[in-house]
Automatic annotation (TrEMBL):
Native source species: Nelumbo nucifera (Sacred lotus)
Compartments it resides in: Secreted, Extracellular space, Apoplast
Keywords annotated in UniProt: Apoplast, Secreted, Signal
Official protein name in the record: Protein EXORDIUM-like
CC annotations in GO: apoplast
Alphabetized InterPro entries for the sequence: EXORDIUM-like
Signal peptide: 1-23
Family according to the record: Belongs to the EXORDIUM family.
Main location group: secreted
Length: 321
């Protein structure tokens, strides 16, 4: 009985680690899915052509930048077209992303469609040091486009960020630039931050590619790109990109309070394949040569592990495999 109480306490502790900003990638990857429809809070969604800009903060190897750039390209290339989808290996990153599109067609109010396109890539070698506040993250995000943009700040493994590991693996929100301060949301840019947890907290932010610090212990999976930190970034970035598309300004689709929302991906924590349960990511594809686990192919032939997304058409967590 004592061990059961301890396990339940550990699960509760992990669920409670939620960042205080508009949305965050939770450190609760070992809990069950939430089978409820996410509520719409009447705010605008991103629409039209939106540039995805990458701000690399700190030292990233060219190979690491290629892994994440290819992931973004797998969403932003014309992969939505039927001709491209038939050419791509399945299951694909593009197919995974299509679940977010369903939120644009719910209810009486139909939202204009969203088209993501690869934008700028900015290299920043520690311009504000190796210990960052949340305010500094937003300032770094503002280096990207100031309108019709998602600006993604990625911090290297030797960069400490306020709340990183203790309460969040990444976060997303929105901000207005000084030149475009308007009340209308279309003058806001959306931003995302994700940290490389390889040396700081892989058991919290890179599971299932590392032993979890709480909950059931099972052998870690082999990372599909042979980089625990960057493959962990892809999982968190995918979750936050989906949340940005469906809840960009804190008043879109989410469940619970606006300060600690469950969104399209965070409503399905720890689920990557069918049959997932606490401590087990689910039935995944396995590369016969490397032994790496994955559930999606990218546009350029890479393999990725992506989180389940809450599908509004089935009111369940949707997995690619």
């Amino acid at each position: 009985m004592g061990s059961t109480k301890l396990f339940l306490f550990q699960i509760f502790f992990m669920v409670s680690l939620i960042h205080l900003s508009s949305a965050a990638r939770r450190l609760a990857d070992q809990v069950q899915e939430q089978a409820q429809l996410l509520q719409y809070h009447n705010g605008p969604l991103l629409y039209g052509k939106i540039s995805v800009n990458l701000i690399w903060y700190g030292n990233f190897k060219p190979s690491q930048r290629a892994i994440i750039s290819d992931f973004i390209s797998s969403i932003t290339t014309p992969s939505a077209s039927k001709s491209t989808q038939t050419q791509q290996a399945q299951p694909s990153v593009a197919t995974w992303w299509k679940t977010t599109e369903k939120y644009y067609h719910l209810g009486a109010k139909k939202h204009p469609s969203l088209t993501l396109q690869m934008g700028k890539q900015i290299l920043d070698k520690y311009s504000v040091g190796k210990s960052l506040t949340s305010k500094q993250l937003v300032q770094l995000a503002a280096k990207g486009d100031q309108k019709n943009a998602i600006n993604i700040v990625l911090t290297a493994s030797d960069v400490a960020v306020e709340g990183f590991c203790s309460s969040r693996c990444g976060t997303h929100g929105s901000s207005s630039s000084g030149a475009l301060v308007k009340k209308n949301n279309k003058y806001k840019f959306a931003y995302i931050w994700v940290g490389n947890s390889e040396t700081q907290c892989p058991g919290q932010c890179a599971w299932p590619f590392h032993q979890p610090i709480y909950g059931p212990q099972s052998p870690p999976l082999v990372a599909p790109n042979n980089d625990v930190g960057v493959d962990g970034i892809v999982i968190n970035l995918g979750s936050l990109l989906a949340g940005t598309a469906t809840n960009p300004f804190g008043n879109g689709y989410f469940q619970g309070s606006a300060g600690a929302p469950l969104e399209v991906a965070s409503a399905c924590p720890g689920v990557y394949g069918k049959g997932a349960y606490p401590g087990y990511a689910g039935e995944l594809l396995v590369d016969p040569t490397t032994g790496a686990s994955y559930n999606a192919y990218g546009a350029n032939g890479r393999k990725y592990l992506l989180p389940a997304l809450f599908d509004p058409s089935t009111s369940s967590c949707s997995t690619l495999v």
